[in-house]
Amino acid sequence: MNCPRCNVPLKTVEAGGIQVDMCPQCEGSWYDLAELNRMFALQDRALQPSGLAVPRTRAADLDQPVACLKCSQEMERGRYLSDCDVLVDRCPEHGIWLDGGELKALLDHMAGTVHEKPGLLQALRRLFE
Ligand SMILES: [Zn+2]
Ligand SMILES: [Zn+2]
What we know:
This protein is of the alpha+beta class. The protein has one domain (11-127). 22% of the residues lie in helices and 21% in strands. The protein contains 3 helices and 6 strands. The protein has helices at 33-42, 102-113, 120-126; strands at residues 11-15, 18-22, 29-32, 76-79, 87-91, 95-98. Strands 1-2-3-6-5-4 form a 6-stranded antiparallel beta sheet, covered by helices on one side. Strand 5 (87-91) and strand 6 form a beta hairpin. The two termini are 24 Å apart. Bound molecules: zinc ion (ZN) (2 copies).
């Protein structure tokens, strides 16, 4: 698969036991639904994506809409969590695309809220059922 922003091949990296397809140029990353569900099932391990550090060499235009990597339909941009300002591009059929920095913002948000809201991860999973 190629990056929907840079059109360069994505690199597969491992984070907390899941496979993530990441762009070496813009640090955007693709998660299909199965990977997302596994990621949220891992909870604490998924909050430490140390394997995701990829040097940034060029910023992509983050305002452009993204085409789904699987079906090429334009993805919906919206909040992933109702109480979190991180906007992500999502295909309801296939998965989500996170631009560089969005994953970290999302995980930081989860790390700050997951203790007070044990139902949060279940709520995340329901988004994709
Ligand atoms: Zn890219
Ligand atoms: Zn799709």
